[in-house]
């Protein structure tokens, strides 16, 4: 069992930046790959980024590549998503997730989810 709590969402203008954080507890944080997903009403949950157990490997969706950066600090049991050059289409609820798989990129690959944090990008 892993508990995840996201924070850092809010309002930002297009072109601005925002940093999301996810605090994990319940199990050994370093044993899980971590990911960020986002979802808007009426659409499927969308993969954003993932980071390996050690933090040495990351993957990003094409839509955010070059703008977002995922990182983790196992000593603090946290994972972050730095979002730069934000666009209105980035508006969504962002979810932190944990997976026991080696390379999780699909929602079904993740076992634990946070409650989500709203990100709104104004034009």
Structure in a nutshell:
With 123 residues, this protein is mostly beta strands. It is built from no helices and eleven strands.
Q: Which structural class fits the helix and strand makeup? A: mainly beta
Can you count the beta strands?
A: 11
Low-confidence stretches: none
What is the gyration radius calculated from CA atoms?
Answer: 13 Å
Distance from N terminus to C terminus (CA atoms, Å) equals: 40 Å
Q: DSSP strand (E) fraction?
A: over 45%
Q: Give the overall silhouette.
A: globular
What are the secondary-structure elements, in order, as H or E? EEEEEEEEEEE
Please give the largest β-sheet: 7 strands, mixed
Average residue pLDDT: 93
Number of H- or I-type helical stretches: 0
Helicity level, as a percent range?
Answer: under 10%
Describe this structure in words.
The chain has 123 residues and is an all-beta fold. The chain contains no helices and 11 strands. It has strands spanning 3-7, 10-13, 18-25, 33-39, 46-51, 58-60, 68-73, 78-83, 92-99, 112-113, 117-122. The strands form 2 sheets. Strands 2, 4, 5, 6, 9, 10 and 11 form a 7-stranded mixed sheet that branches. The chain is globular, with a radius of gyration of 13 Å. The mean pLDDT is 93.
């Amino acid at each position: 069992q892993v508990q995840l709590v996201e924070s850092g969402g809010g309002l930002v203008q297009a072109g601005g930046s925002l940093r999301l954080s996810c605090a994990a507890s319940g199990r050994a944080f370093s044993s899980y790959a971590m990911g960020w997903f986002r979802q808007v009403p009426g659409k499927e949950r969308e993969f954003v980024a993932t980071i390996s157990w050690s933090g040495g490997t990351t993957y990003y969706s094409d839509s955010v590549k070059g703008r977002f950066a995922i990182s983790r600090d196992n000593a603090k049991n946290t994972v972050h998503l730095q979002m730069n050059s934000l666009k209105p289409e980035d508006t969504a609820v962002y979810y932190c997730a944990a997976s026991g798989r080696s390379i999780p990129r699909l929602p079904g690959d993740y076992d634990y989810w946070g409650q989500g944090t709203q990100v709104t990008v104004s034009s």
